[in-house]
Structures are given as C-alpha cells and as structure tokens.
C-alpha cells in the first residue's frame, strides 16, 4: 500500500458513518454498552501504520506518529481507550513488534486521557509491555531492524519515567486502596521497581556507547568512530541519548542533584548539537538542570540555564503552537521555569536578557517577586511547590503502614530543604536594599538602620546590633559567592565567583560597596524591530493583490 | 590507605553497580576511613546515602552522621545540602542528626561565635571526625578572606573559635595575611576585585551587518 492509496481512503469527514457519540448522555451510554465496532478508518490506519513501521520511510512514520495518531485520537478516542490488543492483532495479523509499539501508545493514551487514570492492572500491563520492548531492543545480538522517529523515541523514554513517577505516587497513596489491591501491590514489588527503571536506562546508555560518543563529539571528533555496532544505529544512539535525559529526570525526582548533573557530562545544555533537535527534550533538560543548580545554590548557573532556554522558547514559540499535545506540557514547564527564575533572581539579583526581564515584569511574576523580596516566606514556598518536579520516594511505605497518603512526603522534604536555605538568607534583601544607596557606609550607621527597621521601641544596644550585623554581612558574602561553571565536560565543575550585581567588602569599620550599573539597551530592540519590519515589507512586496494579478 | 581505597570504590560507583547493596559494607568502611584519615570523597558518600534511600532497612545512623559532618568540612561547597536532600524528614529529626543540622544551619548563617559555643557544649558530637575543627576554621578563613580588607585582631580570633595568640599567628601566616598597627590584621586588597561595574551597551558588527545589507 502506498501513501496515495491511503490518502484516498482516509477521509476525516466520514466521522458520522461509524456511529460516534451523539452528545446525548442517554444515547451515549446505550452506545457504550453495545459491542463497539472499530471504525473503518482506524482499521486502515492500523494496517498502514504497521506496514510503515516494518518498511516505511521514516518521514512517513513521523507524520503518522505526529499527525495521524493524535488526529484519530481526537476523532474517535477522545474519552475512550484505543482498541484492545486482541482486536488490533485481528486486523494487523501476527506482528509482535508492532503490537508492543501499539500497546505503548495505547497505554500512554490511557494515562493521558482516560478519566480516573489507569487501573492497577493497566499500570502493571504497561510495565510488562515496556519490559517486552526493552528486552527486544537490548537482548538482541545484533541491532534490531527498527527505525522510529526521534520524537517518538524521546516521548517513549520520557513516558517510561513518567509512568514510574505516576506509579510511585499512586503506590504511596494507601488510603484509598482495597485490601485486594494492597495485596497485589505487596506481592508484586518488582513491578515499576526503581532499580528496574534505572537498569533499563543505564543499559540503553551502555548499549549505545552514547557517553563515549558524546565525549568524542565534544572534543570535535567523529562520534561514529566509537559508536560500535549498536551505537551507530539511529535507534540505539538516540535511545541512549534520551536515556541520559531520563536519568537526569529520575535522579532529580529522587533528590539526587549531584547525579542529575553528573549524568549529563559532555553535554553542553545550551549548545546546538546533532543530538539536540527535539524541543521538548531540550526544554525538559534545561528545566531539570536549572532546578538542580538552584538547589545546589549555584544561582548563576541556574539563571544562565533558565534564561537560555526561555529565550529559545520565546523565539521559537510559533513552532510548537501547531502541536497541541506537546504544547500543554511545554507551556506548563515554561511557566514553572519563569517561577524558578524569579526565585533565583530574588535570592541572587543579576542582569539577565532584556526580553526575559520584560516577561518577568509582566503578569503575576512581578507581584510574586516583590513579595519574595520583602521576605514573604509563604510566597517562596508557594512558588517553589508550584514549580518543582513531582518528587517521589523510591520505596513504597512498608507493609502494614497506617493507610494514609504518603505521596506528599518527598515533596515536603525537598521544600523544607529549600525553605531552610531561604530562611538562612532572610536578612540579605534588607541589607542589600540599604547598601544599594551608598558607595561607602560605616558599620555602625548600617547597624543603626537595621535596628530601627527591626525594633520600633528604640530599645537597642549599638554594640550588639553591630555584632549581629557583622554576622549577616559574612552570611551575605558567603551566600553570594557560588560555584559557577566556566568550562569543562562536567556541569559539576566550576569556580567560586560573586555573580550577583551588588558586592562589598569591609575595611575595618567601613563598608565599601560596588554595584553594577547597566546602561539602557536600545540596540538589540531596534535591530529586532528593524529586521521584523524588513521582513514584513518583503512579504508585502511578494503579495499579489487580486486586482494586479488579473 | 584511603587513597588505595578510592580506586576500589570508584569501580563500585560506575553505572548500575552504584545501586548494588552488596557494596554497602565496603563503602561504609570507606566512610570510617575518611573520618579517621581526614580525607574526603563526596561521590562515594552520596552513594552510601543513596543505598540507604533504596534500602531503608540498612540505614546506619552513625555512618550517616559521619557523612553529614564530613560534608560540613567541605564548606563553602554545598555538599551538606546534597546529603540532606537524600535523607527523609524523619531521619533529619533523629538525634543526633538534628544536632548536626543545627550546626550546619548556624555555620551557613556564619554565626561562628554561636557555633564555637555550641561545639564546646557537645564536643563528643564531632570527635570522630579527625581535623573537623580545623576544617571549619578553613571555612571561616574563606569567608573572612572574601569579606574583609582589614579586620580587628580580636574579632578574627573570636571567629576562629577564641584561639590563642600563637595559633592566630599560624592561621594569619597560612593565609598570607599581615598583622598591622592598632591590633589590626590586613587581609588583602579587595578594591581590586570588588569595584563598581558599568555595563554599557555593545552592538557587534554582525547584528548591524544584516541591517546594512538590507538597506541597499
């Protein structure tokens, strides 16, 4: 079957023929009770899809995956699962590899769209299906004859980690489980086990030699020279690369920020490379890297990571607009990153790109930053909880625990660690606001300001106030001097730098202050506007008005 | 000894092997060794905490305390936060972990005087870690080094834990600082590093090039 045949038969408008939902609840319920018969279009699609996975050109497979599948989902499976395995195999015949891939999409759709989420059984079956898939790919003695679009591979790995995350959360909510469910869970501890997930990701990394490839690539060599039999195949190479990002996410979810950053050795997050062409993957990478840096108090690195990717998103926004199912995820993560960037900038004021600054001045961000600057701890916490990853505990609550909800424990803990840090820095914004007004300031004078600010009864002792001010000043210097990445393969490396815009030193009794003064930037703005205008002008010239064409 | 151990341990931290609970006894011994020989290996210690995270029944309070205290010896690096993130809230509340958390908290706030008072009341807490107090003094010197141009001699001695004159001289010499008149200590010329920056706008030729080209 070639593409044209398919196109002829594929008629999106023939929707009604197959008896879809009417919109009337009673009739719909009736319809659901009837034996469901698969629409002809779907049958044709499944056959065509299968053939293309076997031997089709990759661009065709890409369009089936990115366009046809979501379109059919919208038309026929908005609120119901795709057809069962048995129904599908009746149509496409005996094709184990296709069935595994189909089931992966089938379960993914259930996780994303079906109300109430997947059942325990579906979670288990999805896990077993992943095992089948990875066994097929990893245990082969030579590379398997399969090629999938890179976006598919990325979403596959990302979904695998997501479903693990989802299971861990589900597993930790003991309060709504039946006795039977608990028994099943307790006797199946291997399913969605963290070690199993780690093992899959590590095996994909090892099988593809992706680490060696990245190392050679970073030093300007040809990655194929170390790729080996498997790693030179696109399927293995990209699965390996995406598994590194999967590990980044997994480590972050477990609060292991050191490993999170370390796993990306030899990947320069902002740099364009042959591996970095899936926007969703790029965005996810930057989100987790930036977050890990923020937790490690490497604010400069976090700010650089967030503003880099946010700038990229700003400039390529139109690109994602068409693909709705990715769009939601990207929008959410973008908003989260603006929140995290806002937090970092409050803790560590620093110059950033003007257009990002512009967005932060808008909307709710501005108000949130203002509140945080004035020491509103609740605002810090809210922003953090909204923007942080969904942390999880790697192990289920022990058998026999009180039937309670344990799914929030991990997130509470990470929030607490972050809030401890904020609490330690609570005096710094006030000190900064005074220092900003001077180039030199005697210690005693600042101590007086601080005392007047903190106490309104006038009952204070200058010596004591100066003592406590000195402690805060030391803390200021300590907290604002952080490791900053400069160069090198590992994102963990770096040198201590003071990247914040205000700095000072103490000369016995006198504080000497150094501020950063930024001249207004007009050039960038005008250059962009001029180019935009030129572009518009050019388009206008190309336009042919009906009158002139006749 | 810790040096040779480092090689053995490195192979245990590679890939999936890192999560093998059978390695735990060796890694724990390595922690003890670091405490005794005043060496440090963050990555190996994080691997231990990770194994505890995955195998809660193997959790060892004493080893965890040593790891946390060792992390403090590496201030101003944020190793302590990394360790904290791998533990649970319940573990942090356990005695004496909660005491170590408190020490970390006052150190992070640079309330050194309070820290030394606290240490004097609970000396047994950190006794197992050889060179612990001097490591903290190094951190104090780091903070002093980035903050002061000139500091009062007494103030410096207090920050370093109320050390006597002779010891103070050793520390001052070690960091290349100088005693000056009027009981002052000269730390270094900060005005060379810390000065007001003016960021003015620079437009590079490339970006104007486009415009010039389209203006023909």
From TrEMBL, chain A:
Domain of life of the native organism: Eukaryota
Domain called PCI: residue spans: 305-520
SUPFAM superfamilies per record: TPR-like
GO process terms (BP): formation of cytoplasmic translation initiation complex
GO MF, one example: translation initiation factor activity
Localization (cell): Cytoplasm
Keyword annotations: Cytoplasm, Initiation factor, Protein biosynthesis
One matching Pfam family: Paf67
GO cellular component: eukaryotic 43S preinitiation complex; eukaryotic 48S preinitiation complex; eukaryotic translation initiation factor 3 complex
InterPro entries the record matches: eIF3l (IPR019382), PCI_dom (IPR000717), TPR-like_helical_dom_sf (IPR011990)
Function in brief: Component of the eukaryotic translation initiation factor 3 (eIF-3) complex, which is involved in protein synthesis of a specialized repertoire of mRNAs and, together with other initiation factors, stimulates binding of mRNA and methionyl-tRNAi to the 40S ribosome. The eIF-3 complex specifically targets and initiates translation of a subset of mRNAs involved in cell proliferation.
Sequence similarity: Belongs to the eIF-3 subunit L family.
Quaternary state and interactors: Component of the eukaryotic translation initiation factor 3 (eIF-3) complex.
Identification of the protein by name: Eukaryotic translation initiation factor 3 subunit L
Organism per entry: Hypothenemus hampei (Coffee berry borer)
From TrEMBL, chain B:
Residue ranges annotated for the PCI domain, each copy included: 40-202
UniProtKB keywords: Cytoplasm, Initiation factor, Protein biosynthesis
Coiled coil: none
Xref: InterPro entries: ARM-type_fold, CSN8_PSD8_EIF3K, eIF3k, PCI_dom, Transl_init_fac_sub12_N_euk, WH-like_DNA-bd_sf, WH_DNA-bd_sf
GO process terms (BP): formation of cytoplasmic translation initiation complex
Gene3D superfamilies to which the protein is assigned, alphabetical: ARM repeat, domain 1, Winged helix-like DNA-binding domain superfamily/Winged helix DNA-binding domain
PROSITE patterns hit by this protein: PCI (PS50250)
The organism's place on the tree of life at top rank: Eukaryota
GO MF entry, a single one: translation initiation factor activity
Database matches in SUPFAM superfamilies: ARM repeat, Winged helix' DNA-binding domain
Gene Ontology cellular component annotations, sorted alphabetically: eukaryotic 43S preinitiation complex; eukaryotic 48S preinitiation complex; eukaryotic translation initiation factor 3 complex
Primary localization class, coarse: cytoplasm
Subcellular location: Cytoplasm
Pfam families cross-referenced by the UniProt entry: CSN8_PSD8_EIF3K
Family per record: Belongs to the eIF-3 subunit K family.
Assembly with partners or alone: Component of the eukaryotic translation initiation factor 3 (eIF-3) complex.
Physiological role: Component of the eukaryotic translation initiation factor 3 (eIF-3) complex, which is involved in protein synthesis of a specialized repertoire of mRNAs and, together with other initiation factors, stimulates binding of mRNA and methionyl-tRNAi to the 40S ribosome. The eIF-3 complex specifically targets and initiates translation of a subset of mRNAs involved in cell proliferation. Component of the eukaryotic translation initiation factor 3 (eIF-3) complex, which is required for several steps in the initiation of protein synthesis. The eIF-3 complex associates with the 40S ribosome and facilitates the recruitment of eIF-1, eIF-1A, eIF-2:GTP:methionyl-tRNAi and eIF-5 to form the 43S pre-initiation complex (43S PIC). The eIF-3 complex stimulates mRNA recruitment to the 43S PIC and scanning of the mRNA for AUG recognition.
Protein's name in the database: Eukaryotic translation initiation factor 3 subunit K
Source organism (scientific name): Hypothenemus hampei (Coffee berry borer)
């Amino acid at each position: 079957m070639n593409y044209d045949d398919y196109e002829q038969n594929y008629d999106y408008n023939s929707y009604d023929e197959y008896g879809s939902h009417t919109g009337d609840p009673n009739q719909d319920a009736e319809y659901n009770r009837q034996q469901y018969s698969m629409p002809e279009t779907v049958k044709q699609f499944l056959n065509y899809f299968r053939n293309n996975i076997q031997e089709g050109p990759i661009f065709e497979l890409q369009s089936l995956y990115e366009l046809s599948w979501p379109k059919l989902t919208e038309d026929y499976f908005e609120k119901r699962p795709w057809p069962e395995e048995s129904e599908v195999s009746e149509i496409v015949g005996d094709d184990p590899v296709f069935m595994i891939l189909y089931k992966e999409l089938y379960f993914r759709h259930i996780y994303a769209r079906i109300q109430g989420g997947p059942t325990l059984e579906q979670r288990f079956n999805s896990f077993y299906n992943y095992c089948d898939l990875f066994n097929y790919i990893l245990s082969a003695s030579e590379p398997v004859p399969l090629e999938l679009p890179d976006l598919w591979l990325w979403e596959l790995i990302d979904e695998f980690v997501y479903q693990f995350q989802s299971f861990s959360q589900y597993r930790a909510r003991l309060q709504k489980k039946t006795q039977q469910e608990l028994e099943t869970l307790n006797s199946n501890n291997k399913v969605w086990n963290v070690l199993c997930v780690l093992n899959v990701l590590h095996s994909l990394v090892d099988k593809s030699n992706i680490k060696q490839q990245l190392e050679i690539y970073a030093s300007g060599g040809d990655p194929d020279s170390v790729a080996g039999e498997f790693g030179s195949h696109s399927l293995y190479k990209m699965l390996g690369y995406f598994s590194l990002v999967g590990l980044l996410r997994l480590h972050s979810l477990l609060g292991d920020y050191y490993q999170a950053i370390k796993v990306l050795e030899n990947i320069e997050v902002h740099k364009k490379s042959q591996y970095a062409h899936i926007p969703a993957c790029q965005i996810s990478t930057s989100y987790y890297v930036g977050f890990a840096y923020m937790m490690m108090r490497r604010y400069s690195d976090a700010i650089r990571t967030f503003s880099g990717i946010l700038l990229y998103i700003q400039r390529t926004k139109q690109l994602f607009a068409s693909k709705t199912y990715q769009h939601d995820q990207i929008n959410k993560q973008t908003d989260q990153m603006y929140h995290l960037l806002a937090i970092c900038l409050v803790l560590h004021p620093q110059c950033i790109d003007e257009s990002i600054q512009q967005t932060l001045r808008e909307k709710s961000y501005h108000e949130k930053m203002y509140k945080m600057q004035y020491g509103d701890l609740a605002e810090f916490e809210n922003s953090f909880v909204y923007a942080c990853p969904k942390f999880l505990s790697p192990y289920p609550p022990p058998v026999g625990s009180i039937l309670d909800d344990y799914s929030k424990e991990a997130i509470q803990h990470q929030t607490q660690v972050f809030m401890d840090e904020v609490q330690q820095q609570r005096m710094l914004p006030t000190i900064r606001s005074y220092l900003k007004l001077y180039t030199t300031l005697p210690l005693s004078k600042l101590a007086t300001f601080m005392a007047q600010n903190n106490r309104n009864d006038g009952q204070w002792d200058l010596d004591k106030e100066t003592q406590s001010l000195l402690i805060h000043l030391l803390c200021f210097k300590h907290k604002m001097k952080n490791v900053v990445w400069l160069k090198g393969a590992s994102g963990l490396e770096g040198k201590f730098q003071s990247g914040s815009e205000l700095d000072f030193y103490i000369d016995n009794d006198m504080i000497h202050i150094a501020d950063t003064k930024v001249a207004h930037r007009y050039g960038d703005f005008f250059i962009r506007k001029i180019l935009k205008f030129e572009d518009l002008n050019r388009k206008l010239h190309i336009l042919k008005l009906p009158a002139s064409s006749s | 000894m810790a040096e040779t151990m480092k090689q053995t341990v490195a192979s245990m931290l590679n890939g999936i092997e890192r999560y093998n609970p059978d390695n735990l006894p060796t890694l724990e011994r390595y922690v003890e060794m670091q405490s005794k020989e005043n060496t440090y290996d963050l990555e190996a210690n994080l691997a231990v905490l990770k194994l505890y995270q995955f195998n809660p029944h193997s959790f060892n309070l004493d080893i965890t305390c040593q790891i946390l205290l060792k992390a403090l010896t590496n201030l101003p690096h944020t190793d302590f936060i990394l360790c904290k993130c791998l533990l649970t809230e319940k573990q942090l509340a356990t005695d004496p972990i909660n005491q170590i958390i408190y020490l970390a908290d006052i150190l992070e706030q640079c309330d050194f005087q309070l820290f030394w008072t606290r240490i004097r009341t609970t000396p047994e807490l950190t006794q197992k870690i050889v060179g612990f107090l001097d490591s903290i003094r190094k951190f104090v010197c780091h903070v002093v080094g980035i903050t002061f141009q000139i500091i009062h001699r007494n103030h410096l001695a207090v920050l370093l834990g109320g050390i006597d004159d002779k010891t103070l001289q050793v520390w001052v010499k070690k960091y290349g600082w100088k005693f000056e008149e009027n009981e002052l200590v000269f730390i270094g010329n900060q005005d060379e590093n810390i000065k007001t920056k003016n960021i003015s706008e620079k437009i590079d030729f490339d970006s104007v090039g486009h415009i010039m080209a389209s203006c023909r």
